[in-house]
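>> received
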Amino acid sequence: MTAALVLLPIEASDAGWLSDVFKGSPKDGKSPKQHVASRKPAGIAKPAASRMPHTIKLAALGPANLGALKPVASLCNPSKFRIVLDVGHTAESEGASSARNVPEFAFNLRLAQRIEQKLKAEGFAETRLLLTEGKAGPSLVKRVAVANNLNADLFLSIHHDSVPNSLLENWEFEGKKSHFSDRFSGYSVFVSRNNPDFKTSLSFAELVGKAMKAEGLEYAKQYTLPIMGRYQHPLLNKETGVYSYDQLVVLRTTQMPAVLLEAGSIINRDEELKMDSSERREIVSSAVAAAAKEFCRPQEAFLGPL
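>> returned
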């Protein structure tokens, strides 16, 4: 399938967003994906000044107004809030293969494009796709550098899930050998406790998880199990499916809040069909947009005694 991509080089400057069009087609599915982590942060730009004011603006209050409800400044201005939607993996390193031999990269791209459309429709005009090229490790460094140089306010990486090779079973689809695992399904949300703004990363991750749950989706619960091996991760919230993935490059070395969404399992044969549908892409994109709107909405606070 031919798709329009965005190619953003490391040298991208903050002066403006880069070209939106790059034509290419993903290759056939390869091996199940492995996220690449690094112990040494890549060379990155200095963090820019925060774009999310948290100050509370108070009117002059007389004694009779103590404890009154007053508005608090919005966490962000949607029209200026820079959300980078990172399309997980690359055309050269496609991530996991689905149960029907479709590369994860194709799923990631289609969903990220729909999320971009939804966010822009909701007023997040600065939302852009981030698409990198090359092998897995170098591509992670590139995408982090671009996001940092663009002074993005939020980094959201879009992926689709698989399982460790040891949990795969064999089957044939359309005459070709393939692998599947119907044992697990569901979305999951990841953050790094080593991110410079972990608190905000976690806040947005919680909103994404809550919004996915509100859409009737369930999160993947296998990441706490020993059978996951080195893919085992601590569960930070058992209600919303937020996990920590502390050493993942795109979550740890970005100089802005960063979240990774595994939208669902494509190695599960039933869920793969759902993830390939426009209906499921609409549900997930609506959940992400709802989370972004909630993150940016004006807050309220009660003022206690002075």
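>> The domain at 76-302 is CATH 3.40.630.40 (Aminopeptidase).
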